[in-house]
Amino acid sequence: MGRVWQCGRLALGLERPLVMGIVNVTPDSFSDGGEHATADAAVEHGLRLVSEGADVLDVGGESTRPGADEVPPDVEAERVLPVVERLARDAGVPVSIDTRHARVAEAAIAAGASIVNDVAGFRDPAMAGVAARSDAGLVVMHMLGEPKSMQVQPYYDDVVSEVRAFLSQQADTLIAAGVARSRICVDPGIGFGKTLDHNLELLRALPKLASLGFPVLVGASRKRMIGDITGEADPKRRLGGSVGVALWAAARGARVLRVHDVRETVQALAVWRALEGEAT
Ligand code: PMM
Question: Model-level pTM greater than 0.90?
Fold first, then answer.
């Protein structure tokens, strides 16, 4: 068997890039804010993404768009837990919980989530504790500071080295706390305290991030970097750019693609893989 990402009882094969479909249960997300704000609508959306070919669903209840206020964990839990529970039961794919809060992560695991996606990269010791006590897959993402302030003049001496060092250090800390290496996936955090140039540098350096030995996740779907490049102000009209980044990232070693537009991404990947001469 080739490389796998261990997420609870499931070992996800990484021979081809996995598509993680986004289910935001938030009233204020930049790209789909408010559309799936009720549990029923979010579950329906998640099931549709699975029918379109999503390998994993990522459920989030706190918008982390630049400048967003922090959502109290109780409110976040109330939003996401019913959705996690129903999707874990009915979707037939692993469910990921996108949260920075240990209480929410722990409750979501109890409700059936098998991946914890932490945009704060398990900096909070309580989050690292939840990770160590569970057998969930973990997405360790890099973010400079906090959503409220991260886009205020982000500065790095060397963005690639600094992000790579952070990911490596957080992974080592988790491993030291008892987490199996095979459970960890790393993510440069496109748009989280980064200018367009920082995002481009990080994407160009994907092979260098992959050399850490963990699967790399890329989430650029509908993000501002695509608007900055193309001038398209409406996130929903950034499909072409989103698919473009996803293919480019996959070709440079990204193993998990976090996207809004599952159907189109799956189709593009199938064509790309056929052209590469790989089994579809
Ligand atoms: N981006 C967003 C939220 N969660 N999680 C990971 N691991 N990587 C990302 O790039 C990421 C994330 C914000 O984007 P959205 O509002 O489109 O979900």
Answer: yes
